[in-house]
Design brief:
Length: 472
């Protein structure tokens, strides 16, 4: 007769149930659970409390390329691996995915212009009559609609770009929409700035990790534009002098930009709550007249209400009160040639163009069609021109038959590698969620059950056996 692991452990539980009383979960344990796992009807409360799956301070690193979630559990789902929640010191995260191409660390970084570089911090604009609207954390799913709205009002803003956060994948990945959006930002007259690679708190990581956060984002932006910004905003506005962060930003040639109006849109992302952010904006503008004051405003294009509600309100209110809506560089009276550093080895010429693409012998597609002198670069339909003369970002547009003279075309993307200063193993990018130790045999389960000291432990083993049988 064949005895499955389930039968063996169920028998063990039955034999011990008379001697052990099950204890209810504490409130603290409930707060530690991770939601959104791909476990069907299996209780995450039982699976994730297994001590073999814990990670973080006091537990150590995950094995088998597992990601360490913000709550301290190993796994390979997006919930475990997405940055910035994934713990980069205790497992693999999407933050460890490196952008393709040569490093930017050797590019000269002269400090030009009159805007201060780190370790000094910029918190406000100069002069009067301007409002610099800024948007952090994107691009993401709402950004394209935000660009449409800004075009409607001919408003120019600054985007602080994050390279790989919220499980969106690297911004320079062929076939994804992010590169096309960033091209469009630039072609539309918006300023592009850095918000780091994966949105880590720069004051809480090592100096080498800080360099990675900046340099990898530079590489990805260079892969799209041919250069990278000289302006940055630290995630969570956290870059302290004590940690060495501000000095590091200065050494890397960055202006560190904060703000003097925080819309707090991250707190108000619902139709009923967004009025709170509108009130913050309006009350600040009421403190001074446009003839005497300028403002530097922070918002986030990853929030729905910011894109579809707050931004239009800010644009209308600013115009009504007599302000010009400008980029950060403009509000600091910094010439545009100081906003970026060029990679002279790059074949991309987007940042080198002194005129919009539409006047450089090519026209940006306005209806999704491409070919001839009509390009997809900078269009809202996607940056690749497929063999059927339509713009898009899918493999059929960017792969075989793609027209390189009318848009981007996909090159073979290398498997993400990890630099010598990064983690020792390749990152886990699977959406699978198995926490069961691989290769667990029936004999091992029996021995494990024999060592268990409570029915609670045996219940955990029972769940492992169920998963083992379903996967086997």
């Amino acid at each position: 007769m064949h005895f499955s692991p389930l039968m063996i452990i169920a028998s063990a539980i039955a034999g011990s149930a008379a001697h052990v009383t099950l204890q209810p979960s504490s409130k603290h344990d409930e707060n530690d659970l991770i939601t959104g796992l791909d476990w069907n009807d299996t209780s995450p409360a039982l699976v994730e409390r297994n001590f073999l799956a814990r990670c973080g301070l006091g537990f150590g690193k995950c094995s088998d390329d597992g990601c360490c979630s913000t709550a301290g559990y190993c796994g390979k789902t997006k919930a475990h691996c997405r940055s910035p929640d994934c713990q980069i010191d205790y497992g693999h995260c999407d933050a460890h995915m490196t952008p393709d191409g040569p490093p930017t660390s050797g590019i000269p970084r002269p400090k030009v212009g009159k805007v201060p570089y780190g370790p000094k911090v910029v918190r406000s604009c100069v002069g009067a009559g301007n409002i610099a609207l800024t948007f952090d954390d994107g691009p993401n799913k709402y950004t394209e609609d935000l660009l449409d709205l800004l075009d409607k009002y001919d408003a120019k803003v600054t985007f602080f770009i994050t390279g790989n956060n919220n499980a969106k994948g690297p911004i320079d990945t062929p076939g994804m929409p992010w590169a096309s959006m960033i091209e469009r930002m630039y072609q539309s007259g918006h300023q592009i700035a850095s918000h780091t690679w994966s949105h880590q708190d720069l004051s809480k990581i090592t100096p080498e990790q800080r360099r990675i956060q900046i340099l990898w984002n530079e590489v990805a932006l260079r892969n799209i534009l041919g250069g990278f910004p000289t302006y940055m905003r630290p995630p969570y506005s956290s870059c302290t002098e004590k940690s060495g962060c501000l000095k590091d930003m200065g050494n890397l040639g960055y202006h560190v930009i904060l703000y003097d109006i925080d819309t707090e849109d991250y707190r108000h992302d619902s139709s009923s709550a967004i009025q709170g952010s509108k009130d913050i904006f309006d009350k600040n503008l009421a403190r001074a007249k446009a003839s005497h004051k300028s403002w530097l405003v922070i918002a986030h294009d990853v929030h729905e209400q910011t894109v579809y509600n707050l931004t239009e309100h800010m644009v209308k209110k600013a115009s009504k009160d007599g302000y010009n809506i400008v980029t950060v560089g403009e509000c600091l009276d910094d010439p545009e040639e100081n906003w970026y550093r060029m990679d002279e080895s790059s074949e991309l010429t987007i940042l080198r163009k002194t005129k919009p693409l539409a006047t450089a012998n090519r026209v940006i597609s306005h209806d999704g069609r491409c070919g001839g002198n009509v390009t997809c670069r900078g269009s809202k339909f996607g940056s690749c021109c497929g063999k059927n003369n339509y713009c898009g970002n899918s493999p059929k547009h960017c792969g075989f038959g793609c027209q390189p003279n009318a848009g981007h075309c996909q090159k073979a993307r290398h498997t993400s590698t990890v630099h010598k200063h990064g983690p020792e193993k390749r990152p886990a990018t699977s959406d699978a969620g198995s926490l069961l130790p691989p290769g667990l045999s029936v004999v091992e389960l029996v021995l494990f059950a024999a060592l268990a000291s409570s029915a609670g432990d045996l219940l955990r083993l029972l769940v492992f056996a169920l998963i083992h049988e379903s996967l086997g």
